[in-house]
Amino acid sequence: MRTKLSVIEPQTALNRILDALECELIDASDDEILEAAKDLGMNPLMKGSAAFLGLHTFSFAEFFESEALREVLARTMQIAAATQREPNGDARQPKPKRTIERKGAADK
Amino acid sequence: MPQIPQLVDHRVLNTAETALALKLISRMDFLRLKTIARWHARGLPPDVTWDDLLQEAFTRVIVGSRRKPEDVSMVAFLAGIMRSLRAEHWRRVRGGPGSRETLRIDHQDLSRAAALSDPAADLEHALIARQELAAIEQLFAGDPLALRILAGLAEGHSAVQIRAALKISKTEYDSARKRMRRALLREGLTCAQN
């Protein structure tokens, strides 16, 4: 077995390594994450910990609590339920906005 | 004969279950996802950040373009989406369907369009991959066994094959992987953008 990574085509080697080691991160326990953070002088248990820096999706987590998400989900569920009730696709569809705009433009 | 109405709409249930699964992501899961996103962003051009990958993965789940199987954890599912986003990105850049320039050849024997892919994209990919491999090697520079395991993984070998080739026990292999995991977590938790 070779000991240098550069012998294989770099894209292939990189993809294989990224895919193979991904599971290490998925399976990492909470304790292991805390220990690694501790090595860096971070405490993820503290509010505003540096470990969360750059993680814009974390503030996105607040989105899960928000009215905006509730609206998105409610809309998705309504569409799903309407499609379920009207299996033949007879459900009344909202008028496309573009059509209305075109009519308006033609009148002018 | 009147039909019994369907009591459970699986599509609605799927959406609700997905929402619940997203809501149940813990603070630690967010850190796990951060390290995974940073890992998968390796080898992507600098204009694509790990946060872009993560947000795109979340978006695909929320809009329902990707459905989570019941037996897969949300973190593993999002990781899978990020993995496919990485592959998708390079496929697009390298000249997958829709991204190629086509040249019409007006010759009776060659009357078909020839697809031209951008050779510079392959060179760029190779160069970025080489740099990332060097960076990953650097991560494990102090651990010769980890470097040898990495070389085995790069060749596509399984854990059993690597253990056999390196003549190491399962315990030695597992403890090396544990050290590697610690190094990956440390690197993944840093604050750098890419």
Write the layout of secondary structure elements.
The complex is a heterodimer of chains A (108) and B (194).
Chain A: H1 10-26, H2 30-39, H3 56-63, H4 67-85, H5 97-107
Chain B: H1 10-23, H2 27-40, H3 50-62, H4 74-94, E1 101-104, E2 113-116, H5 119-139, H6 144-154, H7 159-166, H8 170-188
Antiparallel strand pairs in B: 1-2
Helix pairs in contact in B: 2-3, 2-4, 2-8, 3-4, 6-7
Amino-to-carboxy terminus distance of chain A: 76 Å
Most extensive interface, chain pair and sizes: A-B, 56 and 72 residues
Query: Mind describing the biggest β-sheet of chain A?
Result: none
By DSSP (H or I, 4+ residues per run), the number of helices of chain A equals 5
Please trace the helix and strand order of chain A, writing H or E for each element. HHHHH
Order of helices and strands of chain B: HHHHEEHHHH
- Work out the strand percent of chain B: under 5%
- Number of folding domains of chain B? 2
Kindly state the mean pLDDT of chain B as a whole number? 81
CA radius of gyration of chain B: 22 Å
Main sheet makeup of chain B? 2 strands, antiparallel
Structural class of chain A: mainly alpha
Radius of gyration of chain A: 26 Å
